[in-house]
Amino acid sequence: MLEFIKANPVLCIVVCIIIIAITVYLIRYRQDILKKAALYAVAKAEEAWGSNTGRIKFAEAYTYIKKNYPVITFFVSEAQLSKLIEDALVSLKEIIATRESIAKKEEEKLATAPDLPATDE
């Protein structure tokens, strides 16, 4: 291997540049994949563990992302991944609040809707 590097230094540099470019692309422009994965992982952990188990849910979401996206997460720091999971939790809470709000409005509409007359058939 060392002989190959010594014999082909330009090729090795080009390969390294390509690998770095792909990595930067994945991290910068495909971070939406990680965001979606984090939201999915947080939702699944929330569903599985319920309330008052924040550390367990965080660990499960963190492990899911590291396991399913090892190449991308290799270049993402632990702090960045933690922030990503925390942001996903905030998004999940917003989604749940929106759903509950819509459901409540629908219930109010049904409660205030006039009764339809009975039809004889």
Explain this structure to me?
This protein has 121 residues and is mostly helical. The protein has a domain of 81 residues. It is 83% helix and 0% strand. The protein has six helices and no strands. It is elongated.
Mean pLDDT: 85
- What is the strand tally? 0
Radius of gyration: 24 Å
Q: Number of DSSP helices?
A: 6
The biggest sheet, with number of strands, parallel, antiparallel or mixed sense and barrel status, is: none
> Roughly what fraction of the amino acids lie in strands?
under 5%
Give the low-pLDDT segments: none
List the secondary-structure elements in sequence, H or E.
HHHHHH
Name the structural class: mainly alpha
Q: Helical amount among residues, as a percent range?
A: over 70%
Q: What key attributes describe this structure?
A:
121 residues, mainly alpha, 6 helices, elongated
Provide a quick synopsis of the model:
With 121 residues, the protein is mainly α. It contains 6 helices and no strands.
